[in-house]
Amino acid sequence: MTSTTTRTARSARGQRADRPGFTCTQCGWTSVKWVGRCGECQEWGSVVEDAASTAGPRTVATAPPRGPARPVTEIDVEAARARPTGVGELDRVLGGGLVPGAVVLMAGEPGVGKSTLLLDVAGRVATAHGTVLYVTGEESAGQVRLRAERIGALAPRLLLAAETDLGAVLGHIEQTEPSLLVVDSVQTIASALVDGAPGGVSQVREVAAALIAAAKARDLPTLLVGHVTKDGAVAGPRTLEHLVDVVCQFEGDRHSRLRLVRATKNRYGPTDEVGCFDLTETGIVELPDPSGLFLSHAVRHVPGTCVTVTLEGRRPLATEVQALVVPSLLSNPRRTTSGVDSSRLAMVLAVLQRRAGVNLGDRDVYVSTVGGARVVEPGADLAVALATASGGENVPLLDGLVALGEVGLAGEIRPVVGIDRRLAEARRLGFTRAVVPSGAVDPASVPPGLEVLEAVHLAQAVELARGPRLRSA
C-alpha cells in the first residue's frame, strides 16, 4: 500500500511538472489554462503558452565557487564606486554615476528622448574613458550615426552594432570588451533558443538574464532601454524590474520641452532625486536650474497669477499658476485645467466659495500652469486658490509673492513637507513675500529678505495676499 501511494504521488508531481503554463505577455500574469483575456491587465489575446522546462531542480552545487568567502573588512570598495557619466543630472539620479557591473533600465514613452540621452552618455563615456558598445535593435546604424552627429556625440571609440539576436550581441561584447554597454531596446532582442516573439515574456526574461550575467561577469556597466505599456508601466514580465539594479522612468509631455528622469528603484543610491533636461533640436541638455521654464517674466501685476514652489523628489521647482475667471453663459459653468488636477481644482473652488466668500457659481474658471509644468501635489492648493480669487476680483496679488500650503475642506491651511527648501528656492529666485500655514516655519530658518505671512484660514490667506492697500480700502 505504501509503495502504491508513493508511486501515485510521484506520478501526480510529474504530471504537475509537465503541465503547460500560460503567461500574459503584457503584465506577466500566469494561468494553468489558456484564456482569451488576461485576468490581471484585461488585455485580449496576450496570454501565450510558456516553453516547457526540461531541467529539474538544482539540489547540489554544480560548479565550484569563484573565490573563497572573505571577511567584510577585507572587501575592496574602490572597484564598486560609481563613475561619473559626464551628464550631471543623470549622475544625480543614479547616485553619483555608473557602478561597474550595474544594469540600469531606462523606461519611457515613445519619443520622449531615451535613445537621445543614452547616445549622449555613450559619446561622453567613449571620449573620456574607453570603448563603448551601442547595440541598436530598432534603428539602423546609419540612423544612429545621424543622431550622434546632430547631438555632437561622435567619438572614434563609440562602436555601433545593429543586432536583434542575443547570441550576436554577446559575441560583440566578447570581441570588443567595452567599458560601457547600451542596448536599445531590450524588447527587440531575441534568443534563438527560446520560443516566442521578441518582446514576449520568455524572450525578455532570457535576454535580460543573459545580459545581466555578462555584465556581472565582466564588471560591465549596462544601460537598457525599455518600452512601456499604455498605463506607463515597463513592458514585459514584472521580474525584469527585479533583475536589474536600477529602474529609471523618463517622463515628459510631448508638448513641453521639460524632461524628468527619476529612479523608482536604485540599489546604489537614493530614489528621491530627479534629473531635469531640456529637449532641444540639438539634443537633450541638462538643466541644473529649471525653474525659469515655469515662470512668466513678460507680464507683471496681472490679476489671476500666483507662484508656488513644488518638490520633485528633493528638488524645489518654482511654478506659476494662472487663472482666468469670466462670466458664464451656460447653466453649468466650465472648469477647465491644464497642468492641474481637475478634481483637486473642483475641491479648491468649492472651499474658496464656501469658506472665503468668493462667488464662482456663475463664472467659467480656467486654470493653467506656465511652461507645461504639471502640479499634482496638495502643496499647490493655496496658489491655485489665490490665483482664482485674484482672477475673480480682477485685482493682482502682492508683487514678489509665493504661496505654499494645502487647503482643507474646512478652509484651514495645512503645512507641507520641505517648506524650508521651498522658501530658500523662492528667495533665491528673487521673491520677497510668502504666504504659508501658521506655525509651519521656524523664524530662524527664514532666508534674509523674505517676509513670511502666516495664515490659519483660507479667508485670511486671501486677505494677506491682497496687500494692505486693498485691506485698508
Automatic annotation (TrEMBL):
<feature type="domain" description="RecA family profile 1">
    <location>
        <begin position="79"/>
        <end position="228"/>
    </location>
</feature>
<dbReference type="InterPro" id="IPR020588">
    <property type="entry name" value="RecA_ATP-bd"/>
</dbReference>
<feature type="compositionally biased region" description="Low complexity">
    <location>
        <begin position="1"/>
        <end position="12"/>
    </location>
</feature>
<keyword id="KW-0227">DNA damage</keyword>
<keyword id="KW-0862">Zinc</keyword>
<dbReference type="Pfam" id="PF13481">
    <property type="entry name" value="AAA_25"/>
</dbReference>
<feature type="region of interest" description="Disordered">
    <location>
        <begin position="1"/>
        <end position="20"/>
    </location>
</feature>
<dbReference type="GO" id="GO:0003684">
    <property type="term" value="F:damaged DNA binding"/>
</dbReference>
<dbReference type="Pfam" id="PF13541">
    <property type="entry name" value="ChlI"/>
</dbReference>
<feature type="region of interest" description="Lon-protease-like">
    <location>
        <begin position="364"/>
        <end position="473"/>
    </location>
</feature>
<feature type="short sequence motif" description="RadA KNRFG motif">
    <location>
        <begin position="265"/>
        <end position="269"/>
    </location>
</feature>
<dbReference type="GO" id="GO:0016787">
    <property type="term" value="F:hydrolase activity"/>
</dbReference>
<keyword id="KW-0547">Nucleotide-binding</keyword>
<comment type="function">
    <text>Plays a role in repairing double-strand DNA breaks, probably involving stabilizing or processing branched DNA or blocked replication forks.</text>
</comment>
<dbReference type="GO" id="GO:0008270">
    <property type="term" value="F:zinc ion binding"/>
</dbReference>
<dbReference type="GO" id="GO:0005829">
    <property type="term" value="C:cytosol"/>
</dbReference>
<dbReference type="GO" id="GO:0005524">
    <property type="term" value="F:ATP binding"/>
</dbReference>
<feature type="binding site">
    <location>
        <begin position="108"/>
        <end position="115"/>
    </location>
    <ligand>
        <name>ATP</name>
    </ligand>
</feature>
<keyword id="KW-0378">Hydrolase</keyword>
<dbReference type="InterPro" id="IPR004504">
    <property type="entry name" value="DNA_repair_RadA"/>
</dbReference>
<keyword id="KW-0234">DNA repair</keyword>
<keyword id="KW-0067">ATP-binding</keyword>
<dbReference type="Pfam" id="PF18073">
    <property type="entry name" value="Zn_ribbon_LapB"/>
</dbReference>
<dbReference type="InterPro" id="IPR041166">
    <property type="entry name" value="Rubredoxin_2"/>
</dbReference>
<keyword id="KW-0238">DNA-binding</keyword>
<dbReference type="InterPro" id="IPR003593">
    <property type="entry name" value="AAA+_ATPase"/>
</dbReference>
<comment type="function">
    <text>DNA-dependent ATPase involved in processing of recombination intermediates, plays a role in repairing DNA breaks. Stimulates the branch migration of RecA-mediated strand transfer reactions, allowing the 3' invading strand to extend heteroduplex DNA faster. Binds ssDNA in the presence of ADP but not other nucleotides, has ATPase activity that is stimulated by ssDNA and various branched DNA structures, but inhibited by SSB. Does not have RecA's homology-searching function.</text>
</comment>
<dbReference type="GO" id="GO:0140664">
    <property type="term" value="F:ATP-dependent DNA damage sensor activity"/>
</dbReference>
<comment type="similarity">
    <text>Belongs to the RecA family. RadA subfamily.</text>
</comment>
<dbReference type="InterPro" id="IPR027417">
    <property type="entry name" value="P-loop_NTPase"/>
</dbReference>
<dbReference type="GO" id="GO:0000725">
    <property type="term" value="P:recombinational repair"/>
</dbReference>
<dbReference type="InterPro" id="IPR014721">
    <property type="entry name" value="Ribsml_uS5_D2-typ_fold_subgr"/>
</dbReference>
<keyword id="KW-0479">Metal-binding</keyword>
<dbReference type="InterPro" id="IPR020568">
    <property type="entry name" value="Ribosomal_Su5_D2-typ_SF"/>
</dbReference>
<keyword id="KW-0863">Zinc-finger</keyword>
<keyword id="KW-0346">Stress response</keyword>
<protein>
    <recommendedName>
        <fullName>DNA repair protein RadA</fullName>
    </recommendedName>
</protein>
